[in-house]
Amino acid sequence: xxxxxxxxxxxxxxxxxxxxxxxxxxxxxxxxxxxxxxxxxxxxxxxxxxxxxxxxxxxxxxxxxxxxxxxxxxxxxxxxxxxxxxxxxxx
Length: 91
Prior knowledge:
The protein has about 90 residues and is mainly alpha-helical. The protein contains three helices and no strands. Keywords: Membrane, Transmembrane, Transmembrane helix.
C-alpha cells in the first residue's frame, strides 16, 4: 500500500509541474478517441443513409471533422514536442 502512495504522489507532482501541457495531452487523447470511434461507427452511419444526398452530406461533414482533427493533433503534438525539447535543453 505504501508503494501505491508513492506512485500517486509522483503523479500529483508531475501534474503540478506540467499543468500547462495538460490541454495538449487531452487534445491528442480526444483526437485518438475520435479516430477510433469514427473507424468503428462511421462506416455504419454512411451505410444507413436513406438517400444519396444524405450520404454526400455525411461525407462532407466527416471530411471537415477529419481535417479539423488533423489540425488539432498537429498543433497539440507540436506544443508537446516544443515543451519536451525546452525541458531537455535546460538539463
